[in-house]
Amino acid sequence: MAKILFLDDCEMRHDLVQLFHGEKHEIVPVWNVEDCITKLSAESWDVVSLDNDLGTGMREGREVARWLEENPHYIPHQVLLHTNNYVAANAMRAAIPHAVESSWWIKPEPK
User: Fold this and answer.
1) 102 or 58: which carries more pLDDT confidence?
2) CB count, 10 Å around CB of 41?
3) Spatial CA neighbour of 54 closest among 26, 84, 27
4) Which of 13, 70, 98, 108 has its CA 20 to 30 A from that of 23?
5) Residue 62 sits in a domain of what CATH number?
6) Contact 18/108 with Cβ under 8 angstroms?
7) What is the C-alpha separation between 24 and 63, in angstroms, rounded?
8) By C-alpha distance, which of 9, 13, 3, 14 is closest to 33?
């Protein structure tokens, strides 16, 4: 069972992740950059999955990637990027080279 921190502003995505992966993994939802950084710095995580565009006037997910770049001892084993923002995804990959783009949250695992 992986411990997954999932940053997104969309309730439907949080629900889908829980529906498709909640029985196999501990999924902790966060809705903003501040909460994501707080949880990353307070606990150990197997995976962090980052969206970038978190709503008008909100800090962006790429700020979490920059924070992780500056604090590499908090980088989880796996960093997933589930943003549709190509420019932001490139910036996040530049900050965390092993980060990969993923849409795993919308696809059920094969049986």
Assistant:
1) 58
2) 11
3) 84
4) 98
5) 3.40.50.2300
6) no
7) 29
8) 9
111 located within any domain = no
Q: Which residue has the tokens 């920059």?
A: 66
Task: Give domain status of residue 56, yes or no.
Answer: yes
Residue type, 31: W
- How far apart, in Å, are the Cα atoms of 74 and each of 5, 15, 67? 12, 26, 9
Number of domains in the chain: 1
pLDDT band at 103 (very low <50, low <70, confident <90, very high): low
Report pLDDT digits (tens) over 27-56: 999 999 999 999 999 999 999 999 999 999
Rounded distance, CA 27 to CA 44, Å?
Answer: 13
Q: Residue 106 region, left (φ>0) first, then alpha (ψ -120 to 50), else beta?
A: alpha
Structure tokens at 69: 């770049």
